[in-house]
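Re: that chain you flagged

S.,

Sorry for the slow reply, it's been a week of failed gels. I finally had a moment to sit down with the sequence you sent. For the record, here it is as I used it:
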Amino acid sequence: MLDWRGMGGNGDGNLPPGPRERLPWSGLMSYRRDPTGYLTRLAREYGDVASLGSGRRRMYLLSRPEYVQEVLVTHSRQFVKSRALERSKIVLGEGLLTSEGDLHRRQRRLVQPAFHRDRVLSYAGVMTGQAARTSESWRDGLTLDVFGEMSSLTLAIAGETLFGADLRSEAAEVGEALSVVMGYFRTMLLPFSDLLLYLPLPAVRRFDKARRRLDQTVYRIIDARRQDAEGRSDLISTLLLAQDSEQGGGGMTDALLRDEAITLLLAGHETTAVALTWTWYLLSQHPEVEEKLHTELDTVLGGRAPTADDLPRLEYTRRVITESMRLYPPAWAVGRRALVDYEAGGYVIPAGSVVIASQFVIHRDPRYFPEPLRFEPDRWTAEGRASLPRFAYFPFGGGPRLCVGEQFAWMEAVLVLAALAREWRAKPVPGHPVELQPLITLRPRHGMRMTLERQ
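Prediction finished late last night. Pasting the structure tokens below so you have them in one place:
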């Protein structure tokens, strides 16, 4: 199978090609050191279906939109979550990100009402109000970590909209706990990682402490809402009041509420914080794009704060966010485990194998995005979108497991960027390293030190 990247490697019967492992687990270790770089090289050298690892540890990278659609949509019932996410249940439990089958469908049905369009639009005032609080704390010439600021802001938004709680005072502790937990997810990819949790290692102690810290916040919120859920519109109150006819009219247990809360706390603030951070960085590197953004904000807003009614007119602002998530997708890869033998591109992927579809790799494929490393929001016109295969761009996944909070995230990102950028620009601190840290999300490894300039 030939394409623009060329072929090569160690074909094994009808298995896809890929690099040979000189030592056991050497491919996996290379992947752990530089996941996005390794997957990009793998796709370019071995084509749209490539293998990494060997024997029972072999994984398969799918880098063509049609194959991604088959895995996530057409044949989704033939796949379950990958090994890494199965192991992440130690933190996330049976939340939407990790649960399978009937349980996942039931949980999604209970969670879905909190993300209906009208409910999401009602959160707009919270989003712009919290953005205003952040803006009021900024000063001209102030140097700060934009990733930390965006994380605190989106945590406050998630706290108020999803949990009906003020989490700003806990932002530093909760943010640190989430960072520790997410950092440990990489360890879960190691062979025999389950055994590490029983060893008295410093990293394990930090992980346990962070997990307990998150549980403390979540269970406190659940207890408070259980006492006073009537009349509230936040997610936890909605779930407490939800009744599931297929389960005899019973709502969620505290354990399942905790699992959903932890999952949505992670997904509901982390991904948007990452997207906004990379957007600030990209704007600072492309003054012509920044000027077009400010022109739109001046024209549409006229100096006032944005509202939900402005969303249709903030077209270029949304394009900026869209292009930012193309180059730096917060969720940078999707993993699934095949339940049956699966054919892709003329190759057979054996049952039990893990397949990977990487947003980072496909979003930067020149077959779909000319000059793929160029930051160009105007590629996201209606005509440009229509010319793309369906899964050439999939920052929120797809199919039955499409991110339930996608519309929430889009609105939050657009409104927060508009609310802050109408007053502020940010310039990188000279010499500050900007590197990728692919954990569950695509974080900046060293944060994002920038200096604020008032508009």
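What I noticed first: The chain has a mean pLDDT of 87.

Talk soon,
D.
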